[in-house]
Amino acid sequence: MxxxxxxxxxxxxxxxxxTCRQEPRARHEDPSHxxxxxLSQSLADRSVQRAHEFDAARQRMVDAQIxxxxxxxxxxxxxxxxxxxxxxxxxxxxxxAYADQSLxxxxxxxxxxxxxxxxxxxxxxxQAGDRVLVVGASGGYSAALISGLGAEVTALESDAERAAxxxxxxxxxxxxxxxxxxxLSDGCPAxxxxxxxxxxxxxxxxPEPLVTQLVADGCLAGVLASPGRVPSAFIATRLxxxxxxxxxxxxxxxxxxxxxxxxxxxx
Length: 267
Description:
Order of helices and strands: EEHHEEHEHEHEEHEEE
Strand order of the largest sheet: 7-6-5-8-9-10-11
Number of helices: 6
Helix content: 25-40%
Number of strands: 11
CATH architecture of the domain at 102-112 and 123-258: 3-Layer(aba) Sandwich
Radius of gyration: 32 Å
CATH superfamily of the domain at 102-112 and 123-258: Vaccinia Virus protein VP39
Distance between the termini: 103 Å
Shape: globular
CATH topology of the domain at 102-112 and 123-258: Rossmann fold
Structural class: alpha/beta
CATH class of the domain at 102-112 and 123-258: Alpha Beta
């Protein structure tokens, strides 16, 4: 902006001199700053949207799969409406987390179908204070569900990567769960005895070595998938020296590698 600078000279004659006064420069934001803010907001919006999508899928799972499967324990239904099952699988599988099927986790391991987990847990009739060992706890979903019923849960996992995922999940959603590392077929004798041993997957035969880690009238639950037979959920009850096995319902669940039959070679 140009302004006259009027000064009085000799003889009282006013002389004008033009001077330039610079306006303060406008501050210009770095365009990358705007792009960064926009990207951050977009990611936040997308995260909220995904959370809503998963919540809607969770409610559909309960209403379309769980309730029609004769699962009427209000505690189980309430827990399955809030436990974020999608956090127990790889990002590429999260859109399928609430499908009516078991999902592959790698290494021959699976996240068990929601209906099977819910129905088997209901048949176990878990009460507050029960000591429960979850064998093959993996991502921690079943352990968190059982912990939500008030049980004292020990989660046993043999794979370090899956155990890390499971520990993270239960730290957020079921902090009372205790984790143990070791071979699944060995159970966890250090913290025995248990009122219930819950095998989160299929077995080729009832693993009787685990039965010794039960209290006198304790139960072992899982899915029996013997060759040539329709897989079936079961509960085995320890009564003194005997083991009574009760079939429950058909359940197509993959066998855990630790409980598969050893290959037989013929020559």
